[in-house]
Write a structure and sequence with these properties.
Length: about 450
């Protein structure tokens, strides 16, 4: 009996250790997310990842306010712009669509939230999603005594929940991408070819030309042991953008599915257009940032980014044959309607911005390139001065800023949350509101 018990304990312990290791592995693979640059027009923003992560060793994750000198404590920031003065907006909801260069944006947004002490929804425990790919519900985030200023972690848009818990003046923002290039990127990231056991040597063509067979297997319980964080029945190749934006597409099983109904799809998109202040387009990344800047009254400093996880993979080059394209257009019809709709409104917005819009894009690209280069060099210079120009006041970039671009600020935000809210999830809470996803 005793021996039996001991054996059991050992088994349980090994299981826990194994699960722990798995979680670490998975988290690691997730930092590899997103490949922003493929398809980007700006050659100068292609960043070679820093070879060493020596900065990371310097950062003490337990000390929350490592970046004291960079914190922006003033209650209100007013910027002078080419179009007059404006007050910085701080409240926003960012819907992080999968595989649209969003990790780069999330890092930028997290920095903004961190530096201003904003109260944003955070995933529970060590999770990374706010319920994704399920529509966010009231228990998918850590509770707060105050109203939330916003949300930026992975979640599926749900107007009801977001309007209820987040400030009314929040801006709603998301980003989308040309659907076929999005498909190739997702196909690679979610390892669809291997998990679906695609036989053909050209995985993309094989998959697209035998969709029923391979998609069914990928989504099945048999495919589950190879998938990471994707529940049974959820498609990572079909209308993934629309799914992230909350369109009812039959997931979870039992939910309404409007994928075959053009009219309903267009109605849903119209509603999104009314709800969202900005839908960025990945192919026009800097234009998207400048639109964001103008809508939010932010500064160039707020927009600076470091590209994360630029993917190079075989399927990136894959045959974009007319045959494949046509199959995919049918398969992901909602995403095509969505993309074409918002690509059109995007350019309409830009044309309403006036002639100096493009000048601002150029000026920002120049500043971004300078900062990228500064952060990559290990030189003696401790600071980079960005001179005042038509669209920016003077500001200084310190090495601390470069360091901050490399750390995972979600850890800081969670630590700060625990200190401020004095709330930590216990077993009882977890049992009461079980976690569905990663
Ligand atoms: C959105 O959230 C509300 C409130 O929790 C919930 O009743 C509704 O079912 C959610 N929508 C979806 C599509 O899950
Ligand atoms: C898919 O499987 C092939 C052959 O086993 C392997 O070489 C490749 O690395 C796998 N790809 C991924 C993304 O795991
Ligand atoms: C991708 O295509 C380019 C030319 O179009 C070629 O030079 C390159 O070798 C290809 N890469 C892969 C991984 O097939
Ligand atoms: C987006 O819209 C612009 C302007 O109408 C157009 O030139 C471009 O081809 C569109 N992009 C895609 C990928 O459809
Ligand atoms: C950067 O500087 C540090 C210390 O000043 C040095 O240890 C490191 O080797 C340098 N790295 C590169 C890539 O030059």
């Amino acid at each position: 009996m005793k021996i039996h018990l001991k054996k059991r304990n050992i088994q349980i312990c090994s299981l826990i250790v194994l699960m722990f290791m798995l979680v670490i592995l998975m988290n690691h693979s997730h930092t590899e997310e997103d490949d922003l640059v493929d398809n980007m027009r700006f050659a100068d923003v292609k960043v070679t990842p820093v070879e060493t992560n020596e900065y990371l060793n310097v950062v003490d994750y337990d000390y929350v306010d490592n970046f004291q000198s960079l914190l922006k404590n003033s209650r209100e920031i007013v910027h002078n712009t080419a179009h007059g003065k404006c007050k910085e907006r701080r409240s926003f909801v960012f819907i992080k669509t999968m595989k649209c260069g969003t990790q780069t944006l999330v890092n930028m947004f997290r920095r903004f939230v961190y530096l201003r002490h904003l109260n944003f929804m955070l995933p529970r425990l060590d999770k990374i999603y706010l319920g994704w790919p399920y529509t966010i519900n009231e228990h998918d985030f850590r509770p707060s005594k105050k109203q939330f200023d916003g949300l930026l972690e992975h979640s599926v848009y749900n107007r009801t929940v977001m309007k209820k818990f987040i400030r009314k003046d929040a801006a709603y923002i998301t980003i989308i991408r040309e659907p076929f290039s999005h498909f190739k990127s997702s196909f690679n990231y979610f390892n669809v070819g291997n998990i679906s056991l695609v036989q053909e040597s050209d995985h993309i063509s094989g998959y697209l030309q035998n969709l029923d067979k391979y998609e069914t297997f990928y989504k099945s319980p048999e495919g589950a042991r190879l998938r990471y964080c994707i529940p049974d029945g959820f498609s990572v190749t079909k209308n993934l953008l629309s799914n992230c934006l909350g369109m009812p597409l039959g997931f979870p099983p039992g939910r309404e599915n409007i994928e075959a109904d053009d009219t309903l799809i267009r109605e849903y998109i119209k509603q999104l257009d009314a709800d969202f202040d900005l839908v960025m387009i990945m192919e026009y990344f800097h234009e998207s940032l400048i639109l964001l800047k103008r809508i939010m009254c932010w500064s160039f400093e707020d927009l600076l980014y470091q590209t994360s996880n630029v993917g190079t993979y075989k399927s990136k080059n894959a045959s974009t044959s007319v045959k494949n394209l046509n199959i995919y257009k049918k398969w992901s019809q909602a995403d095509y309607i969505l993309y074409n709709y918002f690509n059109a409104t995007f350019w309409k917005k830009i044309s309403n911005e006036g002639k100096d819009f493009h000048e601002e894009v150029t000026e920002f690209s120049d500043v971004q390139a300078k900062v990228t280069s500064f952060c990559q060099t290990n030189g003696t210079k401790e600071a980079l001065v960005i001179n005042a120009a038509r669209f920016t006041d003077e500001f200084v970039v310190h090495k601390d800023f470069c360091i901050m671009q490399q750390v995972d600020l979600s850890v800081y935000l969670k630590t700060r949350y625990e200190r401020i809210e004095g709330w930590k999830e216990d077993e009882e809470y977890t049992k009461k509101y079980p976690l569905k996803t990663c």
